[in-house]
């Protein structure tokens, strides 16, 4: 087991063709606040104790295929679930069929740029006590959950039936979960995590993450001051300088 200091989760990042519009949608969906805008990038600040921001970053490419990462939104009652879905559709979401079947209790929607998300039934006991953003839910292997537990220093809160989940040590904010299947990657993920070391330096943290199973990759970032890596399932993430 690697004993280096873990990184901090800084941001969940969306690739967006229209960052301001997509940020407005998710601000309404989560009741988060527009916190910062730099050029075409927009950032949302949490209102529920979550320790990271959500950042919307401009890209020219359109979404293709189902995302590997989606958000699960919690609800407090059947009426709340239906009203939440109805309100988000009015804001620009639309229902999508990803093979969930008519008996599934959650409602599957896509945001204005086609990113899938779920409005979860109130009976879901696993997400009880979470805020509106209940989970960052990833198609992935059980083992990649172990990687992220070590990378962030977040303890496992679930490890059964080929699925893993981790939660922040203070108990606030969403879980991050992984479970099969692990679909082949055809393009860069539309959603990714930005992390940064709290102690030490970026180079040492990159070396630590490589020892845990990550690899450095080139997505055309050029001479950036962040390092682009991929986790053991091939999902991109960025290692920022300490902050």
Low-confidence region ranges: none
Number of strands: 16
* CATH class value of the domain at 68-183: Alpha Beta
Task: Give the number of helices.
Answer: 4
The CATH topology label of the domain at 68-183 is 2,3-Dihydroxybiphenyl 1,2-Dioxygenase, domain 1
Major β-sheet annotation: 8 strands, mixed
Could you walk me through the main structural features you see in this protein, from its secondary elements to its overall organization?
This protein is α+β, with helices and mostly antiparallel strands. The chain has a domain of 116 residues: 2,3-Dihydroxybiphenyl 1,2-Dioxygenase, domain 1, CATH 3.10.180. It is built from four helices and 16 strands. The strands form two sheets. It has an eight-stranded mixed beta sheet with strand order 2-3-4-1-13-16-15-14. It has an eight-stranded mixed beta sheet with strand order 6-7-8-5-9-12-11-10, covered by helices on one side. A hairpin with a 5-residue loop joins strand 7 and strand 8. The chain is globular and about 50 Å long. The two termini are 26 Å apart.
Give the tags.
33% strand; 4 helices; alpha+beta; globular; 243 residues; single chain; 2,3-Dihydroxybiphenyl 1,2-Dioxygenase, domain 1; 16 strands; eight-stranded mixed beta sheet
List the helices and strands and how they pair.
Layout: E1 7-16, H1 19-30, E2 33-38, E3 41-45, E4 53-58, E5 69-73, H2 78-90, E6 94-95, E7 107-110, E8 116-119, E9 133-139, H3 142-152, E10 156-160, E11 163-166, E12 175-179, E13 191-197, H4 202-212, E14 215-216, E15 227-230, E16 236-239
Parallel strand pairs: 1-4, 5-8, 9-12, 13-16
Antiparallel strand pairs: 1-13, 2-3, 3-4, 5-9, 6-7, 7-8, 10-11, 11-12, 14-15, 15-16
């Amino acid at each position: 087991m690697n004993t280096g200091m873990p990184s901090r989760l800084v941001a969940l990042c969306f690739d967006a063709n229209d960052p301001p519009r997509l940020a407005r949608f998710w601000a309404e969906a989560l009741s988060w606040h527009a916190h910062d805008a730099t050029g075409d990038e927009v950032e949302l600040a949490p209102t529920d104790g979550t320790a990271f921001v959500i950042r919307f970053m401009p890209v020219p490419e359109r979404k293709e295929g189902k995302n590997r990462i989606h958000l699960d939104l919690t609800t407090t009652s059947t009426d709340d679930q239906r009203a939440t879905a109805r309100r988000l559709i009015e804001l620009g979401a639309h229902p999508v069929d990803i093979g969930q079947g008519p008996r599934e209790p959650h409602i599957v929607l896509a945001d204005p740029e086609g990113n899938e998300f779920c409005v979860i039934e109130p009976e879901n006991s696993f997400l009880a006590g979470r805020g509106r953003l209940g989970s960052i839910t990833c198609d992935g292997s059980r083992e990649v959950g172990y990687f992220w537990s070590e990378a962030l220093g977040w303890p496992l809160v679930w490890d059964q039936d080929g699925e893993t989940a981790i939660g922040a040590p203070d108990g606030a904010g969403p879980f991050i979960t992984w479970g099969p299947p692990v679909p082949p990657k055809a393009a860069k993920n539309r959603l990714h995590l930005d992390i940064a070391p709290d102690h030490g330096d970026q180079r040492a943290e990159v070396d630590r993450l490589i020892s845990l199973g990550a690899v450095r990759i080139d997505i055309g970032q050029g001479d950036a001051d962040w390092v682009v890596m991929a986790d053991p399932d091939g999902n991109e993430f960025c290692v920022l300088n300490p902050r």
